[in-house]
Amino acid sequence: MASKILGLARLDAKLARIPAAAKAEIKKAMEAAATEMVATMRHLVPVSSGPHGGTLRDSIGWTWGKAPKGAGIIALGKSGLAADLTLTVYAGNEEAFYGRWQEFGTVKQAAQPFFFVSYRAHRREAKRRIRAATNRAAKKVAASS
Question: Helices 8-44 and 115-143, interaxial angle, to 10°?
Fold first, then answer.
């Protein structure tokens, strides 16, 4: 004897709406985490007093998709939900090409890390935010009729 699930069509409709709702919530969470991460990086990066002082600090940022041309140090954040949810945090550009030397040091200069220290400090919080955003979206879709 075949069994029938009551409300299956309504459940299927709710499950189909989860990715769209979750994508918007996750995007907001990723943006907030990236903004905090970039602020910490800009705070930690050493600024010289010369004519190009602050060039490296001003080159630190984040974008959706690929990093801009000339970015020296890159960290990617990808969501398993959708391919278009790839956020890139970057430092350095054609003027501030020395970002990786600042981060990792050279034979003549000690390392003054600012990028990956900030990344590691904010990584757990970013994951928590994304997980919470996914759960919030799923609950919102489940509560709607």
Answer: 160
Euclidean distance between CA atoms 15 and 29, whole angstroms: 21
- List the structure tokens of 66: 């690929």
In degrees, rounded to 5, the angle at the alpha carbon of residue 24 between the alpha carbons of residues 38 and 86 is: 50
What's the CA gap between 95 and 108, in Å, rounded? 21
Q: Where are the domains of the chain?
A: 27-140
Quickly tell me which residue has 């930690």 as its tokens. Answer: 44
pLDDT, tens only, 90-100: 998 888 888 88
Sign of the alpha-carbon dihedral angle for 34, 39, 42, 45: negative
Is the pLDDT at 37 greater than 70? The verdict is: yes
CB-based contacts of 59, cutoff 8 Å, min separation 6 = 71, 90, 91, 92, 93, 95, 96, 99
Q: What is the pLDDT at residue 79?
A: 61
Amino acid (one-letter) located at 141: V
Q: Give the torsion sign (CA, 22, 68, 41, 77).
A: positive
Residue 96 has which token pair? 């501030």
SS3 145: coil
Q: In which band, very low, low, confident or very high, does the pLDDT at 83 lie, cut at 50, 70 and 90?
A: low
